[in-house]
Amino acid sequence: MKTIIEPFRIKSVEPIRMTTREERERLLKEAGYNLFKLHSDDVLIDLLTDSGTSAMSAAQWGAVMTGDESYAGAPSFYRFEAAVRDLMDFKHIIPAHQGRAAEHLLFSLIAKPGLVIPSNTHFDTTRGNIEAAGAEALDLPIAEGKIPSLDHPFKGNMDLAELERLMAERGEDVPCVMMTITNNAGGGQPVSLENIRGAAEIAHAHGKPFFIDGCRFAENAWFIKLRENGQQDRSIKEIVRDTFRVSDGMTMSAKKDAFANIGGWLALNDDSLAEQARTRLIQTEGFPTYGGLAGRDLDAIAQGLTEIVDEDYLRYRVRTNAYIAERLDEMGVPVMKPAGGHAVFVDAREWLSHIPPLEYPGHALACALYEEGGIRGCEIGTVMFGRKPDGSEEPARMDLVRLAMPRRVYTQSHADYIVEVFEELAARKDDIRGLKIVKEPPMMRHFTAEFEPL
Ligand code: F0G
């Protein structure tokens, strides 16, 4: 069979409220041309993020009902711990309310001024937590990872020669080496098992721990199975276990590859670090057997982890993005290649080359997608990264629009609709105008800034 169908039936639905173009133009204007300020029921297809937006399964909703809300020692925690350990065999598994809380726990303990933490590419919140502790967050992606149009099987890989050089020159300033799988900020691109092992080896040779930000570990494992030599006959679970076997701990957002709407964890092998993390957890998140979550959330995660490693699901998941990216590519829309695991990234700076970077081509495209078709994506470019700490403004390295796919939420006809909206835009793309910022906060401006079209 040629068609890869959604490997599920839909038992419970959420209606989409239809809107007209005129309505959307008004709503976007009222929102100060900031898509974060829209009410989500004014959005037809919401591709703002794949985080916390998954459709839970009937089995997960069933598990929610078995959640035990005891303050300490709830069976829900032990089910959660066993489900994590089945995939990632760490000694200490510490729940947290989401990924960034786990990052905060870790980096508030190991990051300090004068230290540097390398990664293939840190996600924003990881960077934020490292910098908040006074340390430097250093990205060392491979050169291929920086060129959107270039095809490469493991574009999320870390540049191991650069890592080796950093460790040789400044090893004593490096408290740990991180790896983000998949590489979200680098386009949802996978990291090979070989690269993960190589980075771990370098860290360990210098006596440093190696940690994985594992948010999209199952998508990464699927790419390894498809693309890495010798992995084709192995199960996703085996690949996942191999991935984490070489690491000393992980941070996780269960809002991604655990099909949960909230949750996360920090896992560690080091007893003393785990004890310090648990003490801090009690101070900031909650007792170590719930970590800021309800027992029912822990059960939803435990069940979700058994479902995420299903190959039929992963095949459909990754194919949806590839399908959209291929149609856009055929149409001449420049997309990040190959398609990532959780999102399609469009190179707006190239497609809307008549809009200079400081007039925000990525943001202009995101606004046009909403006005044209009610699609909400997210600019990853100059609006997000252009304002420097000294107050100056510079173009970001790229101006991309990320269309992130919620898990198990949209169907093939939604994918076709997204392609059609791009077809409409392609016909009049030279009329899409840039924007100027009329109001912005001192930092993280993309969430709250207000704009006017030029
Ligand atoms: N690490 C990565 C790679 C992420 O993509 C995210 C979240 C986090 C950590 C933080 O997890 O949201 O549970 O606190 N990414 C979302 C996104 C927000 O839209 O890409 P969190």
TrEMBL record:
<keyword id="KW-0456">Lyase</keyword>
<dbReference type="GO" id="GO:0009034">
    <property type="term" value="F:tryptophanase activity"/>
</dbReference>
<keyword id="KW-0663">Pyridoxal phosphate</keyword>
<dbReference type="InterPro" id="IPR013440">
    <property type="entry name" value="TNase"/>
</dbReference>
<dbReference type="InterPro" id="IPR015422">
    <property type="entry name" value="PyrdxlP-dep_Trfase_small"/>
</dbReference>
<feature type="domain" description="Aromatic amino acid beta-eliminating lyase/threonine aldolase">
    <location>
        <begin position="46"/>
        <end position="419"/>
    </location>
</feature>
<comment type="pathway">
    <text>Amino-acid degradation; L-tryptophan degradation via pyruvate pathway; indole and pyruvate from L-tryptophan: step 1/1.</text>
</comment>
<feature type="modified residue" description="N6-(pyridoxal phosphate)lysine">
    <location>
        <position position="256"/>
    </location>
</feature>
<protein>
    <recommendedName>
        <fullName>Tryptophanase</fullName>
        <ecNumber>4.1.99.1</ecNumber>
    </recommendedName>
</protein>
<dbReference type="InterPro" id="IPR018176">
    <property type="entry name" value="Tryptophanase_CS"/>
</dbReference>
<dbReference type="InterPro" id="IPR015421">
    <property type="entry name" value="PyrdxlP-dep_Trfase_major"/>
</dbReference>
<dbReference type="InterPro" id="IPR015424">
    <property type="entry name" value="PyrdxlP-dep_Trfase"/>
</dbReference>
<dbReference type="InterPro" id="IPR001597">
    <property type="entry name" value="ArAA_b-elim_lyase/Thr_aldolase"/>
</dbReference>
<dbReference type="InterPro" id="IPR011166">
    <property type="entry name" value="Beta-eliminating_lyase"/>
</dbReference>
<keyword id="KW-0823">Tryptophan catabolism</keyword>
<comment type="subunit">
    <text>Homotetramer.</text>
</comment>
<comment type="similarity">
    <text>Belongs to the beta-eliminating lyase family.</text>
</comment>
<dbReference type="Pfam" id="PF01212">
    <property type="entry name" value="Beta_elim_lyase"/>
</dbReference>
